[in-house]
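User: Just a sanity check before I run the rest of the batch. Below are the structure tokens for the first item. I only need the designed sequence back.
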């Protein structure tokens, strides 16, 4: 009975650590995505000629 209690406590502690690592990884991934999006969206001028991009900025 005591062994089952100890095993349950250890499993709970391991799960908490795994969850903390997952949250940290997701935070880092989110920060990287935000950084990438910020680097893509600059002050882009409109195209001056052609039929595309003269009224809206378009990125492919």
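Assistant: Here's the designed sequence for the first item:
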């Amino acid at each position: 009975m005591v062994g089952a209690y100890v095993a349950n406590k250890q499993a709970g502690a391991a799960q908490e650590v795994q969850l903390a690592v997952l949250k940290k990884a997701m935070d880092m991934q989110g920060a990287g995505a935000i950084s990438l999006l910020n680097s893509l969206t600059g002050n882009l001028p409109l195209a001056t000629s052609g039929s595309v991009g003269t009224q809206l900025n378009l990125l492919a």
